Every structure is written in structure tokens, then in C-alpha cells.
Amino acid sequence: MKPPITLPTSTVARNALVLIAVVAGGAALYWLREILTPLAMAIFLMIMIDGVKRSIEDRTPVPGRWAGAAALVVVVVGFFASIAFIANGAFGFFTDASDISSRIGPRLDQIILDGSHLLGIDAAPTASELISRLDAPQYLAMVARQAQGVVTGAIFVMIYLGFLLASQSGFRRKIIGMFPERTARGEALEVFQRVRGGVEGYLWVQTVTGAMIGAAAWLLMRAVGLENAEFWAFVIFIVGFIPVLGGAVAGLAPPMFALVQFESYWPALILLGGLQAILFVSGNFIQPRMQGDNQNIDPVVVLLSLALWGQRWGVVGMFLSTPLAVMAMAVLAEFKGSRWMAILLSGDGEPYADADETPPPGPKRGRVNPPQGKAG
């Protein structure tokens, strides 16, 4: 019988400390979620502002200060415009002139009846009977709390963002104070560049592919005659930033709404098949070509990260799950003791490119080389 592997005491103690630290960190993330989620979203927006600013500087003769102001306006206005557009679109389902809301009850009754006949059920309940079994006041109160939480969270995000932007001026002095030696400072800046490049590359890919999917879905929904096609196209674009679940929402929500709008089932079936085809082509042909080495994350890690951050931070955690995984991989890869974890997180066993590799131009590639200029 082969004897068991004996580990040094120091290794066992270190692994135990790491496990305890991970459990304690996860508990702290959950307990402090109301504080940390707006801060994480503000950092996310700040990275977006920095990327838009550098893009403006590279493509236009606008000075850096004005480019930063323009990037700030674009991101902040886009953030609030997205919330307002989705809120108005959802509210419009109950107030538009098409009277779809008045047809929801009878149409649901017909759908339930047809489904019951298909399954061989004789006595099918009506939609009113099913709704009466639910605690409607409780669900309405929950929706009201969620809406209030979105407004409050958006305000806190803007407050955090303002303070983060104000503290940027002292960031370089803090780096110099934390890493007096030029070599250590260069390594720290290299980690920062990798993290920033990975997140920006992910944002670029998801934004472009989301816009393409949204545009194709809008054309399909307009061809079928689905009302509020613009709203659904924008929802498809937004949920595209949520891995796995985003595709499910994009492919199922419009067909379900079509079941209520149309008397026939064919428009819903056409939408279901067409949206699934669009998502299949994008997920299997377009996105992999655009991502390249930018999102070198194992698919299992993407799923686990979605479940973990969704359970810790809710919808905000779902949006940030993949960028947080990219950031974790970039940081873990820089330390000898944790590099094995970065290798497990990566998709090909290489957490980042070698220093002598030259990334192609454009924002596709998130893994960048160390800064070439002086670090101090």
C-alpha cells in the first residue's frame, strides 16, 4: 500500500490560514454588501470612464482634461439613461394605448386552457385563481423595495464615483509611497495595467456583441410586429453583460410577451427560434473571435463566479461576476504562492501573456505588457 503524502507543517498551516481567510472574506462581502456593491459599481464605472477618455484622446485632438470631462458625461448620462429607459419601458406595459395589460388575463386563461388540453388535464385553473393563491401585497411590497433600492443605490454609486475621481490625483503619490523601489513599483503598475486591460477588454467585447445582438433582435421583433421592440432590444443589450442568465432572458422574455400580445402562437415560436439562432451564432462564432486572449477564463469559473457573486451581491454581483474573475486571475498570477489558482481560473493554463509578447492593436486584447516608460 502506497504511504500517504506528507506535507510540511508550514504548508498545512498556510493552507489552513488561506481557507479561513477565504471563508471570512466571503462572510464580510455578504454582511457589507449594501456598502460594497455601490463601491464596486463605482469602480467599474471609473474604469469605463478611463477607457472612454483614452479612446477619445487616441482618436481626437481633444486635450486630456476635456477628454476626461467628456468621458465622465458620457458614462454618467448613459448610466442614468439606462435606468430611466428600462423603468419607463416596464411602466409603459401597464399604461400604453395598446391596452395589452387589459388582455393579459384572458390571454393567460387561453394559454393555460390550451396547455391543459395538450397535457390531458380536464379542469384547468384560471389565471385569476392562480394569482389569488399568491400573496400579492407581499410581492408588490418586494417590488417597491427593489425599486427604492435601485434609486438609492444609484445615488450612492454617484457619491462613491465622485470621491474616487477626486482621489485619482493622489494615486501616483500613493503608489510611490507604497513602493519606493522602482522595480517593485513597476511590478505593481504592471498588475494594475493587466487588471485594467482585462476589464476594459471584457467591456469592449460585451458592448460590441451586445449591440449586434440587440440590433438583430430588434429587426426580428419589428418584422414579427412585437410591440415595445426598442425596449426589449435594450434589455437584451443590458442583460448581455450577465453570463449564462443573460442569454436565457434575452431568448425567452420577448417570446413570452408575444404569447400575450398575439392570438396565435406562431409569432412567439418565430421569435423563440430566431432569437436562439442569433444567440447561437454570436456565442459560438462572433464572440470567440473577438475575445481572443482577452477573456481567458474557464467556462466553469464563469458559472461559479456568477453563482457566487449573484448570491453575495444580487443583480449587481451578476453584472460584475466576470470582471471580478478577470481581476482575481490577474492579481493571483503575480504571486508565486497563488499562481496555481490563477492557472486554474484561466482557460488555457496561461493566466496572461509573456512579457515579450506584443498584443495586437485595438481594445480586443486585455492582457497588456508592462509599462515601457519610467514608473516614477
Strand proportion = under 5%
Number of separate strands:
0
Quote the average pLDDT: 79
Oligomer: single chain
Helical stretch tally: 13
Overview features:
globular; disordered C terminus; mainly alpha; 13 helices; 376 residues; single chain; 0% strand
Description:
The longest helix is centred in the middle third of the chain and has 43 residues, at 182-224. The protein has helices at residues 9-31, 33-59, 64-92, 100-119, 127-132, 136-167, 171-178, 182-224, 229-239, 245-261, 266-291, 299-332, 339-345. 25% of the residues are buried. The termini are far apart. The model is unreliable at 353-376 (pLDDT under 50). The chain is mostly helical.
List the helices and strands and how they pair.
Elements: H1 9-31, H2 33-59, H3 64-92, H4 100-119, H5 127-132, H6 136-167, H7 171-178, H8 182-224, H9 229-239, H10 245-261, H11 266-291, H12 299-332, H13 339-345
